[in-house]
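pasting input
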Amino acid sequence: MKKRSFLMLIIMVFLLLLPSVCWGEGKKIGLILATGGLGDKSFNDISYAGAVRASEELGVELDYVEPQAVAEFEGYQRDFASSQEYEIIVCVGFDQADALDKIAQEFPEQKFALVDMTVDQPNVASLLFKANEGGFLLGVQAAYMSETKKIGIVGGMDIPLIRDFFIGFREGVKWADTGAEVLPTAYVGAWTDPTKGKELALSLIDQGCDVIWAAAGKSGLGALEATKERGVYGMGVDACQCYLGERIIASETKRVDIAVYETIKSAFEGTFQGGILEKGVAEGWISNCRFPEEQSFWEETFNFKHQVEIPSEVMQKVEEAREKISKGEIKVPRPEEFGG
Amino acid sequence: MKLLSKKSLSSFSILPEIIAILLAFLISALILLFSGYSPLVAFSALFRGAFGSKNAWGQTLTQATPILFTALAFLLTFRTGIFNIGVEGQFLMGAIASALAGIYFSGLPAPLHIALSLLAGGVMGALWGLIPALLKAYLGVHEVITTMMMSYIASYLTSYLVNYPFKAPGWVAQTEPVAKSALLPKILPPTQLSLSFIIALFFSFLVSFFLFHTYLGFQVRAVGLNPEAAENKGIAIKNRQILAFLLSGFIAGIGGGGEILGVHGRFVDGFSPGYGWDGIAVGLVGKLHPGGCILASILFGMLRAGGMTMTRVTKVPLDLSLIIQSLVIILVAAPYFIKTVIMRRKDL
């Protein structure tokens, strides 16, 4: 008995204590995903795609982690930063902000990027998106696709971030000038209540709406479920959500991958700048999944096909709106909290 | 008494546990090897991440702290023959109570405010433990069902509280930050390690003293070892079990409070990745002894903290350090296997 356990100990000691091999030279990319991890078909997957693209094009290594709890963010951030192996560390999701505010001060030489939230430190690039502009494009589509001329929107919470989407959307419907109207916004009051999301969408459909847009996290999935059940058109947000149902016709897309890619690239090229980087339709950070170049990207990513054809004259109108927004000819309003 | 202490000494031999842990690493090394990773590189990253620097130590002990609390809570009830798997619920209720006390009792001097907030957590945890205790003692409802359900209730209740009544403005489900005076001091800056770790060690000592050096603790253990004999000796079983539940809930609640006041500074929805459940495993791996639990919780903290570095530098998925954890639990929970098959001993 003693022999065996002794042997095992010896083996373990060898396995564990031999010196580690050297790591590759040159700085790497660090990526700290939001809780939920890869496979969410949304934020995490898209951010990861952007980092992978940067890693391949720049020929640098990418290390990523999938924290499981909010408590782990600070540990991971410090672990990445203190190793000094990373040119830039990209943190995904607003709930990393508290930890990053601290870590960014601890490591003032380290470059960080934070997706979807601001941290006011000179070494942090806060990547924000002009969601109102994407709402505008979606509004144009909705105005043309509605036959009853009544459109419903379901929001997660009545907060500036969500109002930003809807202000743009209403403006887009108005701009399209098809006589369509948007009913008052139905707020779920939570991000995680699909049942209530569905109820609200059903009541909007009962009031005559035949296009429903949901921007409400998981609650929005319930609203989209309702459109499926009643056979009306649905619209999605963040990633292309059209794979969720045949009659989900379009989604406002937040191209986190492009934002992440560009930020990483700037860090390696020496043009990185801290501060708030807020971009929209003009820069391609905000878009619509029915634009040709977007459509093929999303259909490949999620392996599905859009079923409902959007008439080309409608898409021409949306294209026109995109151009005008990009050139500044249309100024899409924002909530006052966002400087609107 | 002499016989008893001798027996407890021999059952505290930790050789089988050490072999189990080494075996777990060995099996993990094989899994790594077959998945195309180098066990050498992976494990050296794991150890570097767990003990290689001040940061690493801070991470390991920070991760160990909450599970040491929950392990102590678990073993207290287990020693009276109660399988309390509701530690997670008591932990969460303690956390929310401490958070609210930390926010709303402002204006106190720091030591008083900290003590009061932790106490609020402990009392809340104890109350949460009292419910299944009473159900068990007076209605005979089995504690496995009630404690597990009470955990779910606590999880959803705290989630509701921080999503609605006590939600801070913004779009994260969390409370306002607690007052500065309620924050536990950090003991190894700049890491997250706080005074909560020392408190956990202190409670390990208290629990050990209570169980092995007080008459009440002796009774509690007697109830667990042989309830009928204990009853014949005139020990009121129900009372001792309720007492164990209260103490267990109190410690779990303090642990939850320590996590809020020491690490997060506010109650964030979903902050616990299952510390209460980990406590059950750590309690068992630690051989239901507070000293063993300290070692076992550091082992688990090491796997969590080192696992971070391992996934970062080697791309070995974090799942693998969870596999090591699970292997440790399985192998340690199978002492008969280790003792007879590996150590060829039947006498232990």
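fyi Residues 16-24 of chain A have pLDDT under 50 and may be disordered.
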